[in-house]
Amino acid sequence: MKQILNLFAIAFAATAALTSCIQDEAPNAECDILTVELPENILEATPVITNNAVTIRVRSTADISRLAPAFTITDGATITPESGSVQDFANAENNIVYYTVKSEDGQWEKTYPVQVIQRNIASEYTFNSSELDASTGQYTIFSEIDENGNTVMTWASGNPGYVMCGMAPNMASQTYGESYRDHIYEFFPTAAVYPEGTTIETDENSPSKTKYFMKDGKKAVPEYIRLVTRTTGFFGNSIGMPIAAGNIFQGYFQTTIATQRPREATKFGEPYRYEPVSFSGSYRYKAGEIFTDENGNTIQGKKDIFSIYALFYETDENTEYIDGSIHEMNFSHPNLVAIATLPNPHESEEWVDFDIPFAYVSGKTIDYEKLNNGEYKIGIVISSSADGDFFRGAVGSTLDVKNLKIDRKKEIE
Known about the structure:
signal; Put_CMD_sf; PCMD; 31 strands
């Protein structure tokens, strides 16, 4: 009887598949921005497109009051304002123009903040603007803003990938009960500790109703960033990723390949026009109790440890970013020019200050013309479990960091 039912199921599936081939294809339900184009002579770097935002870095000489970005979007979808239409990013708040993409079937739409950044990257990092992600409202996104409130850079983390395992809402519910939705962000691998009195407030003027962390009417500055190695639960174990180390880095996280090629999903680097000399900051660390391998097996006697480093490298037609695979290659890469790696990372209940000189790769020198043209990048990378990208570490390992700074030799005019 069971065989007959199985044969019937197979026949039914085949018939359904044949019927779907004959019928008209259903309208597309996706509404994504896939690519964005602007003249190459004004771009500082390739535009970064995530699931819910677009960041475009342009040269200081570009006229951003009359930019006409051209978008490729999901088949059949529409975009407003129209692709290729001239927009005034100079006078838009925080240099952001909001684009709405609507699916072909008309059932779904997504609003992308498209931000133009036209300034050099910061060298001191205070994480002085933080918000909940617009897509899920669950995890924190950290940015650096200047004295005028303009975004200088946005930090990346593996938080977008952690959404998929669904663990943060579960942990928040167990801790906070019915009010858990206001605390989900606390249970992501990358979060922050804020001064007492910090609240989450909605910007009603933004189309995406952005929720910012605020204190005394201003964007809250965290006391420190907290990175925690967390379990990924049933979902993570089922795909061979039992833990998620807390991490934060300069660059972006490519969610589309996160489960297939996790190390390649972390793209390190932001354009940098200076000669880096040293990387400094402060940390404190407590390792989790039980170290496990990539299969979730306990490794007796193994102690977790964190990692802090900064990369300085040259870009070319084949290398737009250095990704997390550099760890697998023992920090060897043909484009790497210099690296600052924290020596002797260790547990400490007290804050530990560090100041690491950049060690230049043998035979490597800086081409100042390329530096002036924005062909070099710098990438700070921090993780609560040094081997977290191999899914080895201890759940509960906690790394706090603050006062990060890149000292530089000089600016190239």
